[in-house]
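WARN  no MSA supplied for this record, continuing single-sequence
INFO  ligand: NAI
INFO  echoing inputs
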Amino acid sequence: MYICVHEKERPEWMVVMRRWKVCPGDVDSGSEEVKTMSQDAVIGIIGGQGWMGRALGMALLERNVVSPERLVISSRSSRGEAYRNWPGVRCVKDNRELVALADVVVLSVRPEDLASLEVELDDKLVISLLAMAPSQEIANQLGSRRVVRAMPNAAAEIRRAYFPWFASPQVSVADKRLVQALLASCGTARELPTERDLDYLTALSGAGPAYPALLAQSMLEHARGAGLSEEIAREAVMQTLVGGSLLLETLGTEPGDMVERLIAYDGTTAKGLRTMMDEGIVQAIHRGLDAAHRAAISPP
Ligand SMILES: NC(=O)C1=CN([C@@H]2O[C@H](COP(=O)(O)OP(=O)(O)OC[C@H]3O[C@@H](n4cnc5c(N)ncnc54)[C@H](O)[C@@H]3O)[C@@H](O)[C@H]2O)C=CC1
Ligand SMILES: O=C(O)[C@@H]1CCC=N1
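INFO  complex generated
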């Protein structure tokens, strides 16, 4: 199935995939590089039934970035429940079989499972989603120097992840175009200049959806304590957090300016914010981000 969208309205992944001849009749046939990374590339996801692996696999299929026949996933059970509506997707248990089939291997197991992976990538392109595992460790463990580290977040499940990535020097320009197109299916993908930035963003955006969840939890507890019904408390918290975030994004306002603007009323908001700041909410957030960052660079 092919999607026809006006050039100006095409999302980034669609523009790139068209360059790889995904849509017939619109081929940049002048580039050998583009031909090499054409629709023939098979994507394998190790851990493709887990939270992140499944989110990426589903996004690739639903957005027609990869056809079912070009997707292979491995899981411990070999049964591809998550992919039952996509019979063309190959689900395997043996990661060596996946590696033999795939041109690009996405690694989406937990960091503690990395050491027990017995595969040899023979310099195939690998995209690791693992937190706390440096490129060098991935290269040593999997036998490929073409390593991309990418950091999704839980919002990949609804295609709203911030998905930064860093490529080792052996990754080619064509590889990078492919990576950007694959990851953009889950939200906003962005190449980073250094691996250091990726480690930092593991704490900020990788872990990020947990932070509004904590805020929502504490607001909800407070609303329940104030005697609101469960239904109204939940609706009020969710609509407020979503609406407030969309307001910042839509207006493009500097967050600090929005805080000042609301404090300037010198009313209820000012009382609430000043108390939270006097109690050390900003320092608590900074200390939390520092701790998550430390964990990202020196795992226990
Ligand atoms: N969940 C999140 O919000 C984020 C996760 N990450 C990273 O993504 C990676 C995956 O995390 P999740 O998807 O949340 O974990 P998960 O536990 O949901 O998924 C991991 C999957 O890998 C499978 N698995 C383990 N060993 C395997 C093997 N040898 N062969 C095939 N499959 C195997 C497991 O059965 C499981 O289905 C982690 O390394 C994590 O650091 C990064 C950013 C955010
Ligand atoms: O908590 C973790 O280690 C992973 C990385 C960022 C989000 N989840």
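Residues 46-47, 49-53, 74-76, 95, 108-111, 113, 117, 129-131, 151-154, 206 surround NAI (ligand 1) (CB under 6 Å).
INFO  checksum written, moving to next record
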